[in-house]
């Protein structure tokens, strides 16, 4: 083939890109999506999840089940002599997870000691302080004159609240915690160890909890007021009808009908964690990871953090105004003297 006859491709066609060479009207605006995807793949993602609940409700197991890895505090730092702390402690551990080329920094924040004492009055305060401290750290980075190109995000994006499977109603502790914390963080309530309830007990318990949440003005994720359009509202309404999710966690693998599954083995059979006929773990996983992860992060940044930022900046303005007033009064007094 002669030199002049060789095909000329000044812009190699990327994988998955369509050839629009013959389309005279094509501009290429849709290429922004591929540019954004490549940039996001390079930067990676961050997700910070807090788990709150009494000891023994399977918080660590559920987190390991969600990410199919040993990501919980107890899995990474086993301590056979660990005792129930006298006060609430906040412990976090971070992991770098990669799947199909997508990198994510996952931080799991545990709250050992919550609800384990005889007197649990105000036990939500250390958790509230921790969440606000992360907002404050982000704010201080944001208002720096020479701020970082990408601010490290330690803000709590989601709080999974574990409700004991009593089958009756929410405890005053549950109501008080969710009522206060739902104003500063996305809360997703779950019924822990749901395999201890019959299907009838589970449905009754879920309905009772939903009624108590409405009666106490507790707005859990996904919040109605943040639905962006009719399509979002339709999808989120179905999720809201299932809240709280009745979940079962397990990091043990079994063979069932020739398939490997995560489950809990009992005398009468195997409870399959990802089988929606057995529990609602799959719905929780889809909400947190597969369908609403970015929305959870967006609401954290544009709603919860923004409310904190506005309040703090208003406080700073008030302090400056009061300081200026004192300075003016001092000058007047000194002039008269």
UniProtKB/TrEMBL annotation:
Region span, Disordered: 1-22
* GO terms for biological process, alphabetical: cell division
InterPro entries xref list: G_SEPTIN_dom, P-loop_NTPase, Septin, Septin3
Gene3D superfamilies given for it? P-loop containing nucleotide triphosphate hydrolases
Q: Where in the cell is it found?
A: Cytoplasm, Cytoskeleton
Q: Where is the signal peptide?
A: none
The UniProt entry's GO CC annotations, sorted and at most eight, read: cytoskeleton
Keyword vocabulary terms for this entry: Cell cycle, Cell division, Cytoplasm, Cytoskeleton, GTP-binding, Nucleotide-binding
Q: Where is this protein primarily located?
A: cytoplasm
Domain Septin-type G stretches: 43-315
* Pfam family for this entry, one: Septin
Under Gene Ontology molecular function, one entry of this record is: GTP binding
Regarding protein family, the annotation reads: Belongs to the TRAFAC class TrmE-Era-EngA-EngB-Septin-like GTPase superfamily. Septin GTPase family.
The protein here is known as Septin 9b
Q: Which gene encodes it?
A: septin9b
